[in-house]
Amino acid sequence: QMAGRWLLARTRSIAHGISSRTLISHSIQTNNILRSGAFGVANRALSNATEEIAQSLSVLKVQAESGNKIAQFNLGQAYLNGHHGLAKSPADAIFWIKRAAENGSGEAQFQMGVHSLDGIGVEKDAAAAVNWFRMAAEQGLRAAHFNLGLCYQEGNGVARDPAAAAVHYAEAVAKDDLRAAVRLAHAYLQGNGVDKDHAIAANLLRKPAVKGIPEAQAVYGLLLIQGEHVPKDVKRGVSMVEEAAASGQTRAMHLLGSALVNGWWGTKDEEKGIAWLQKAAMGGDADSQYALYLRLSKGKGMEKEAQRWLQKAAESGVPQAKERLAEVGAGPP
User: What is the pLDDT of residues 34-90, one digit of tens each?
Assistant: First the structure.
């Protein structure tokens, strides 16, 4: 599944003077009147507010039907979320969002991409999603560039192309997308679609790490500890890795667990280290699964548990685990 799915389409206020603030204002006024106990006045105020909402919706529909892309997009959002007195209707939502997209709304194009990718209200179609994202990206939407980067990186709806992924991540980074910065940094660390360059990677990771993005904290923290392309700061680096691990980032859990077991960063605590490795392994970190096998295989009475982690590590694709599993006479199912 795509990391891009956690991206939601941005929503604008209703077009041409039909402001959601006006609707909220009426609701607040009505609530205040009700609290005062002036029930007759409250009923009239509620009636007036309801009437104005209906009038605003009526104007919105007229504008949408006349071809206004902002009104079309917002009417689609109203149907999608059940706002402004409308019952939720995915079919009506997609109808208006698609019209807005075809009419040139970048936000609508992006949202059509998300719906096509997830199969929400439309048939699931990754290739169609890529086309919608591309149109939105051409209008400068950074979220569209990020999602295109994911599609090219994973070969979802388009041929896998790490270089094209890096280009779109870079476009998103230029618009201050921190998640894209993390993705592009990994590309530079691995030389995936770009020339390997740890200095550029470190520079890309700094801001998202400082902002608290766990994936960035895990790697940038390690760079600080090692003093690689950044001024060495072990205390700050360890703190970043610990924060990322506490947030559930499995790679940070693995780093912290390995460091505690081996005493790499000045503190050795095998019990805590193994606990972190277990959390990372249960979260799917293959290196932690194999590390647990190595540790547990040395303990008496832990053979069965060690074998379980060896099996999982082999299933996760760790070469050493596959070789060891073959040696002991049992292969993955």
Answer: 344 444 444 444 455 455 566 788 899 999 999 999 999 999 999 999 988 899 999
The CA distance from 236 to 167, in Å, is 32
> Among 258, 275, 279, which Cα is nearest to 267's?
258
CB atoms within 10 A of CB 94: 21
pLDDT in tens, 105-130: 999 999 999 999 999 889 999 999 99
Tokens of 31: 């609530």
Half-sphere exposure in the Cβ direction for 31 (13 Å, CA): 6
